[in-house]
What does this fold into?
Amino acid sequence: MGRVSEAESVYRKVLSIQEKMLGSSHPDVAASLNNLASIYVTTGRYDKAELLFKRALALNEQMLRGNHPQTLTSINNLAYLYDAMGRLNDALSLYNKSLEGSAKVIGNDHPTTKLIRENIKKLKSK
It folds into this structure.
């Protein structure tokens, strides 16, 4: 709907509530960090997005471990950001890590795994 500033405000509120209710080291907090970071990517605020994506990834790795689907999503999100920033080698490295884990955990034919492969294909065509 194009209501990006409203979405940002809602994501900030949700994040604040979750941190108060669940603590700052909960997987739901990581999901909200990813959501807010996605808004920052959309609006070109890459530095803010990178900080939040990295924080979400660190939380997921700590709480859920490396091959949990939510952790793999965080890796893919950071790769997407680096792709948008033109940091293609960093993006490719993270996409490959995400693809490897995704193929192991949810399978080669899962839509998420296929999407990661498509992201890699698009990146390599640049």
The mean pLDDT is 94.
